[in-house]
């Protein structure tokens, strides 16, 4: 089992913790990780872009000039794609970009992402993360003590004080152990979590 140091909010090492290899010590599958990231980004797309085809733009009902004898190329409508104000060829229409990957693949991708953070020594465990009041300054102080800037902060349960204290800190996102996703784990340089959150992750994903 992988062994990681446990720190307090002052940045001092106060112990160590064994991580479950079933979650934090798997073989990293880059293909599944890539697929999970692509799926999440695709599912987030609105797909609401729209442009008009030649059948939808206004005007152009009359043939602009007769077929032969004018010296011009033949034209059937002033709203054909080659005309200014004409329709768009193969215009985009609203569509759904989302696709599914099965639960086993998604779970394996998440474990791979967590394992990669542990292997890169970018997985920081705190004994606890508690603030007495909503104060951005206090939260930033904890980050500075840990020498971390761009971080994903994982909590065992919802903590409004931590969430609101971190809300205005750039390059920091807070989430709960049960809401983890591959994209967030990889997007942020460091994963900061508590012992309680690690136990919940192992309970949910092992």
TrEMBL record:
<keyword id="KW-0687">Ribonucleoprotein</keyword>
<dbReference type="GO" id="GO:0005840">
    <property type="term" value="C:ribosome"/>
</dbReference>
<dbReference type="InterPro" id="IPR023574">
    <property type="entry name" value="Ribosomal_uL4_dom_sf"/>
</dbReference>
<dbReference type="GO" id="GO:1990904">
    <property type="term" value="C:ribonucleoprotein complex"/>
</dbReference>
<comment type="subunit">
    <text>Part of the 50S ribosomal subunit.</text>
</comment>
<keyword id="KW-0694">RNA-binding</keyword>
<dbReference type="Pfam" id="PF00573">
    <property type="entry name" value="Ribosomal_L4"/>
</dbReference>
<keyword id="KW-0689">Ribosomal protein</keyword>
<dbReference type="GO" id="GO:0019843">
    <property type="term" value="F:rRNA binding"/>
</dbReference>
<keyword id="KW-0699">rRNA-binding</keyword>
<dbReference type="GO" id="GO:0003735">
    <property type="term" value="F:structural constituent of ribosome"/>
</dbReference>
<feature type="region of interest" description="Disordered">
    <location>
        <begin position="43"/>
        <end position="85"/>
    </location>
</feature>
<comment type="function">
    <text>Forms part of the polypeptide exit tunnel.</text>
</comment>
<dbReference type="InterPro" id="IPR002136">
    <property type="entry name" value="Ribosomal_uL4"/>
</dbReference>
<comment type="function">
    <text>One of the primary rRNA binding proteins, this protein initially binds near the 5'-end of the 23S rRNA. It is important during the early stages of 50S assembly. It makes multiple contacts with different domains of the 23S rRNA in the assembled 50S subunit and ribosome.</text>
</comment>
<dbReference type="InterPro" id="IPR013005">
    <property type="entry name" value="Ribosomal_uL4-like"/>
</dbReference>
<protein>
    <recommendedName>
        <fullName>Large ribosomal subunit protein uL4</fullName>
    </recommendedName>
</protein>
<dbReference type="GO" id="GO:0006412">
    <property type="term" value="P:translation"/>
</dbReference>
<comment type="similarity">
    <text>Belongs to the universal ribosomal protein uL4 family.</text>
</comment>
